Amino acid sequence: MNSLNGNMQSMEMSAYHSAQRAGNLHKLAAVARIKWLCISRNAMIMIGPVLVIGMVYVCKILYGINSGGTLVPFMRGVLLNIGITMNICAEGFIMVGTSIAEEKESHTLRVLMTSSITGIQYFIGSILFPFMMLMAVNYFVLFISGIPMDIVPWGSFFFVSMVVSLTSCVLGMIVGICAKNQMNANLISYPFLMVFMMVPVFGNMSEGLHRISGFLFTGVMTGMTECLAGGEKYVMSSLDIAVLFGELLISILVFLVLYKRNGYEKD
Amino acid sequence: MEQNVLLSLSHISKRFKTEQALKDINMTLHQGEILGFLGPSGAGKTTTIKIITGQLRQTSGEARLLGTDSSNIDASIYEKIGVVSDNSGIYKKMTVWQNLYVFAGIWQVSRERVEQVLAQVGLAEHRKKPAGKLSKGQTQRLVLARAVLHKPRVLFLDEPTSGLDPSTAVAIHRMLLELKEEGMAIFLTTHNMEEAAKLCDKVALLHDGEIVEFGSPQEICLKHNRNKKYSVLLEGHRELELDQNPENVRKIAGWMERDEIMRIHSCEPTLETVFLEVTGKELNV
Questions:
Q1: Could you tell me if B164 and B247 lie in one domain?
Q2: Closest CA–CA distance from residue B243 to any residue of chain A (Å)
Q3: Which tens digit of pLDDT belongs to each residue from A91-127?
Q4: Are A100 and A179 in contact (CB under 8 A)?
Q5: Is residue B272 in some structural domain?
Q6: Nearest residue of A to residue B150 by CA position?
Q7: pLDDT-based confidence at A42, cuts 50/70/90?
Q8: How far is CA B188 from the centre of its chain?
Q9: Which of A120, B184, B235, B248 could cysteine-pair with B242, CB 3.0–4.6 Å?
Q10: How far apart (Å, rounded) are the C-alpha atoms in residues B146 and A114?
């Protein structure tokens, strides 16, 4: 009898946990849907990916015309670097940060937080669509840059692209948590852009910047694309892995510290 | 614990650095009851709602919402309550329907319920309109629709009709009374004493973070009706205000006998005059 009761109890508990998990997924999906609807209707945000893809494509055509139809590896590398770093930084920080700031501005963030959405559900729901967008644009830029596809280490590219996009989204969350409005979010993004976008992009023009770039998560990505552009085989070093995971971890920690202090919005 | 008590505040105090925002607040809210929290801006009304709903921690005292100590509540409590603050936002780029449908996803509410609530607030014909194009009154009705979408047990309304035109305010009042009939408990903050007198079963007059009077609007008004007076309009449009005394009673009886009275009513104080008497300050400030 006791064991029967015990079994019943454990079945009830397991049913309760399953229902709770399903409820959590519903909420996560609802936040992601809200974010998708907000971001896809915000022209200021959505112009970014189009701009990145358009810029890489137009530059490829124009430089191609000037250099007799084909791009030199150096130019392919420059185009790929600019496209991918612009996508990761400008899009990641701005798309995530601005969308949170927009919610603060329109007082919908508090509404969401008083509708049974937890902090973690809001976090994941907020970065889901931007993360997929960043990944998609990274691949798109890779395809149109003119790099021979047979030399691309697809596994490494996916892995690095994923970690880098994720870090960028977390930094975007930090921007969003600190920003009061959309204008403010853009302003807060600039120092991040200066460091994480400019240093790797100009890294191949200065030895000092190149060295610093190796310690940035975006620098690891551009290191890979430079290898691809030059037709070299890319081998991920332990420093690359340490930089990727280290900076992802640091950004998550910074986010958590800020979140613990005031939540998403200071009262 | 008393049956059907959904909310109880016991000796709640809140201090912000040097400012004492709330002092020893005590009250209870039952199922199917509307409780009005009246006071001027800065009296502590919004602070009280934030403490009850777990958005702010009290300095001392205990607030219990649906049996749970408010300092221990988590996000799941919001599945059972609805909150409308004075600046509850809407997603302006989404349509009216989408504004409700995304929240239906959070609370796992059916499409039929969304339709029902849209019709209830009179926005069914505006379903495809971007929410940013709604008028202020329509926006407030959308906010209210969203707050009751999941049929909460307790609804918190912070100045729900502030700045609205009279016809929209009346429509919202009607809706609140319907919700009350359905058994929802409503915690309403307002500085509109007419609204409170019309809707509330009980009101608390709040002044400088302290409840200075508590009870039904009628009880409070009668309690402060110390100098009974009558306003009389006689034929020839002669209007008089008479104290209750034997001589005036005889006068009134005589006018009544001669059918000279066009209108007569008692002059008990309103909630506003009670507030003025108790605090020495106007309510609508």
A1: no
A2: 52
A3: 888 889 999 999 999 999 989 988 889 889 999 999 9
A4: yes
A5: no
A6: A115
A7: confident
A8: 3
A9: B248
A10: 12
With a cut of 90, say whether residue A135 has pLDDT above it.
yes
Residues A180 and A184: their CA atoms lie apart, in Å, by: 6
Q: What is the pLDDT of residue B269?
A: 85
- Is residue B32 included in any domain, yes or no? yes
Give me the pLDDT at residue A8, please.
Answer: 58
pLDDT, residue A1, reads 52
The CA distance from A121 to B103, in Å, is 14
Q: Which two tokens stand for residue A220?
A: 């690891």
What is the DSSP pairing of strand B154-158 with strand B19-30?
unpaired
- B91 and B214, same domain (yes or no): yes
In chain B, which stretches have pLDDT less than 70?
A: 1-3, 281-285
ipTM: 0.81
B68 and B135 belong to one structural domain: yes
* Residue closest to B134 by CA, chosen among B71, B174, B91: B91
Separation in Å, CA of B46 to nearest CA in chain A? 12
Of the given ranges (A60-74, A235-249, B194-208), which has the lowest mean pLDDT? A60-74
Over 90: is that where the pLDDT of A148 sits? no
Domain contains B80: yes
Are residues B208 and B239 located together in one domain of the fold?
no
The pLDDT assigned to B128 comes to: 95
User: How many whole angstroms separate alpha carbon A193 and alpha carbon A223?
Assistant: 18
- Nearest residue on chain B to A117, judged by CA atoms? B75
Same domain? For B206 and B244 the reply is no
Whether B103 sits inside 8 A of A23 (CB atoms) is: no
Q: How many domains does one find in chain B?
A: 2
Task: Return the higher-pLDDT residue of A146 and B95.
Answer: B95
Per-residue pLDDT at B166: 86
- CB nearest to B79's CB, from A103, A109, A116: A116
Instruction: Kindly report the average pLDDT of chain A as a whole number.
Output: 87
Q: Which residue bears the tokens 């600019």?
A: A82
Provide mean pLDDT across the span A208-213: 90
Residues B250 and B150 in one domain: no
| CATH code, domain carrying B75 | 3.40.50.300
Q: Which residues from B are below 8 Å from A23, CB to CB?
A: 108
B185: domain range? 5-222
| CA distances in angstroms from B243 to B5, B223, B251, B257, B260, listed in the order given | 42, 17, 11, 20, 19
B134 and B242 part of one domain = no
Measure the CA–CA gap between A250 and A188, rounded to whole angstroms.
Answer: 18
